[in-house]
Structure formats: structure tokens, C-alpha cells
Amino acid sequence: MSLGPNVKKLIAHKMSLDAIPKGGGIKNGIDFLTNRKRITQSFRESNEWVEKVIAIIKNANEPNPWKNADSEAIASELLCRIDEKKKGIK
After folding, report:
1. Which domain holds residue 78?
2. Tally of domains within the chain
């Protein structure tokens, strides 16, 4: 899988959840950013997670409009849905 801009943003989003978990705060973020091993591990795990999510979407049962889509298009759609959820749009 190529790491285009949308895939990179999705990986970064997943890493941000690792850095500051739900209910966490600035201390969690600082602890994360000052621990190179955690950053490396989070990147590796987030990259694998994104690859798995995209594969699941591509291999979903028919009708599947994403079956032939590239990783960038799927990542873009996921990012849009994340933004909508953050804004409270359904």
C-alpha cells in the first residue's frame, strides 16, 4: 500500500488516539511525544491498522462500491466520515 497524503493523515489520526486516549490530556501527549519507542510502535501499529481497515473495506460483501478503489480514495472517505462525526453531522 502506498502512503499517499490521505493514508498518512489516517495513520496520524490513529496515532493521535494512541497519544491521547479518551479522557486523557496534555500529559498523555507529552509523555507520548517524549518516548521514541512509543512513537515508533504507534506508527507501526497504526500503519498495520490502516492497512487492515482498507483491506476489510475492499473485501466487503457486494454491493461494494469500494472494491476497486485505491487506498487514497478509501482513506479520504474515512477521514471525511471522521470529520463529520467530530462535527456531529450524521
Report:
1. 5-87
2. 1
